Amino acid sequence: MAVAGAALSGAGAALALLNVRTTPELRDFAPARNVDTLRLLRPHEPAGTIAVCVPARNEERTLPLLIEDLRAQRDVPGMRVFIVDDGSTDETFDAAIAAASGDTRFSVRRSEREPPPGWLGKQAACSAMSTEALNAGAQILIFIDADVRVGPDAVSRAAAALRSTGAGLVSVWPSQNAVTWAERLIQPLLAWSWMSTMPIAVSNRSLRPSTAVACGQFLAFTRDAYLSAGGHSKVAASLTEDLDIARNLRRSRFRTVLVSGRAHARCRMYTSRRELAAGYGRWLGTAFGGTGGTIVVAALAVLAYLVPPVVALVGHGRARRFGFIGYLAAVTSRLASSHTEHGGRLGAARVAECCLHPFSALAFVALLAHSTRQSRRRSAHWKGRPVR
Question: Which chain regions cross the lipid bilayer (predicted)?
């Protein structure tokens, strides 16, 4: 088992190191200066607008910060921002109105009705905003979660990435900020999960739905691609709507491209162990195609990332050597993933969290079991709303 685990872990490290060199970055796409980006995107059609759509539920603390960032965007003269307060039980709506401060580019609406049957709240809000934006003539739709922070060139560079790649969707992967040790154990696994399993250079050129990688925190669509794939109405009940909408685009023969958003976008998704458990509990157990897929993923995680370090500690001879190899490969993949996601020099805390990867794997398996139980019992809740 140590040999098999080391082989799997080594393959993940090799992919992660490859992705360090081949994953495109948002900063690679320079925004057009003094030229309308949309004219460059569609040179034979009239220039339209870039619409930024922000769904928000109980985000009174984070949404004003994002609005401040969006007001500071550069090189997007046609930008409009649509915000829907999705039935918040806090002061999100009032905070958004105050932050927009009369800026005529911003439209802030409150939806006090529950989502229609067969819809989740985020998708319903996104669909409503996209309809309003498309009716206003938007040629590019950008969906950004309310807890994301963006730099002043993020929107213009996302539009430039659509133009340069010819893709129907550019998914910008924000750096995932982690503060507490619970966050440090779990949050880096998001980027690491695709860094160690998918060659992004291949994925970005493929139309195979199974190789799509996307992050719903920051998605940029062309108008034609979004409409052809059915938009959010086609993923109304999905708990992994970002991946499913990317797959729908590929089925409609539009390419989807993942880019690292480091230095231009960042997000702190959860701030406590309770939020981590609730956040992952609502979707993780449904992400792998049912009970069989969940069992396979859990077994592979144990084999590749828990067996090797255990054997390295208690094994003997050849098995112990392979255990150390497997453990070192896992740490290498985490270091590579961290560099791609955050850039810069790796500080002591980040190196330490990479070295604790076996505990991250154990926490992942525990969250997977927790989410599977919640899914079976239909007991998951998020922000005061049951997840069905």
Answer: 283-307
The model's pLDDT over 44-79, given as tens digits with 9 standing for 90+, comes to 333 458 999 999 999 999 999 999 999 999 999 889
HSE-CB at 300 with a 13 A cutoff on CA atoms is 15
Reading the block at residue 56, the tokens are: 């928000």
Residues facing 53 on adjacent strands: 82, 143
Q: Are 368 and 284 in contact (CB under 8 A)?
A: yes
How far, in Å, CA of 335 to CA of 195, rounded? Answer: 11
**How many other β-carbons are positioned within 10 Å of the β-carbon of residue 119?**
18
Q: Write down all domains in the chain, each with its CATH number in brackets.
A: 2-20+274-382 (no CATH), 22-269 (3.90.550.10)
For residues 75 and 33, the answer to whether their CB atoms sit within 8 Å is yes
Paired tokens of 126:
């996104």
Band of pLDDT at residue 325, cut at 50, 70 and 90: very high
Distance of CA 186 to the CA centre of its chain: 14
Closest residue by Cα to residue 1 from 295, 298, 308, 297: 308
Identity of the residue numbered 28: D
**In which order are the strands placed within the sheet that holds 265-267?**
148-150, 265-267, 175-176
pLDDT tens digit sequence for 330-364: 999 999 999 999 987 788 888 999 999 999 999 99
Q: How much is the pTM?
A: 0.93
**Residue given tokens 């139980």 in the structure block:** 373
Distances (CA, A) of 290 to 130, 294, 297, 368: 31, 6, 11, 12
Per-residue b or e along 248-269, where b marks 16 or more CB atoms closer than 10 Å to that residue's CB: bbbbbebbbbbbbbbbbbbbbb
Contact 251, 269 (CB under 8 A): no
